[in-house]
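Regression report. Comparing outputs from two consecutive submissions.

Submission 1:
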Amino acid sequence: MSVSAEIVRAYRAPRDVLRRQLAAEKNEGRVLMYLTVACLLFFVAQWPRLSREAFLDPSIPLEARLGGALLGWLFIAPLALYGVAALTRLLARLFGGHGSFYGARLTLFWSLLVISPLVLLLGLVSGFIGQGPAQNATGLLLLGAFLYIWGSGLWEAERPPVQTS
């Protein structure tokens, strides 16, 4: 299946999608691509909000705001997210998880890529409507979707291997 079809399917059956990805050959390049594309989309999602903020407060120009977001999302966030994935794996091991560091990375980075359309929606709401109930509702929807997809993926990645006889 294509990545876009898998993203849509992940909202309905996140464990099935991740199970298929975990069963495929380990490919660190694919996992890194998921993270890179997710961070790039998160950066693009910031543009409407940053444009609105630059219009309302011209003391910091739009280019400076975009430069800061670029640095944050494309250079700092990937490093921090690798750390979050490693910490997640260590916590899962502490509680009896049977997964791997690769599975923890795949689960987190795939979850971020899956929620990227909602992040783009939040960026549009933040840029065009601004602060208020619509932004809060969109943010809660985004958070709920992320926790559902990431939690389901972690459950799948950390479960004991199935015994076949």
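Submission 2:
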Amino acid sequence: MSHTLYQANASRVQRCELAVPGSNPDMFEKALNSGVDYVFLDLEDAVAPDDKLQARKNVIQAINDLDWP
């Protein structure tokens, strides 16, 4: 039986994350420039049921338009 050993990649430490409601696009750029390690655009718990369709559109636009690292 043969084995192949792979060297592990350097991992990126995630110290701080920020959840941003997808229904509030005004917060997207602020979150992007906040200096946190991880931003996630929430489409579930932070978004009212009636706002989910618009939140999806907001997130798609933000992913395409903003300069995410």
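Expected: both submissions complete independently.
Actual: both completed, but the second showed a warning that disappeared on reload.
Relevant detail on submission 2: DSSP finds two helices and two strands in the chain.
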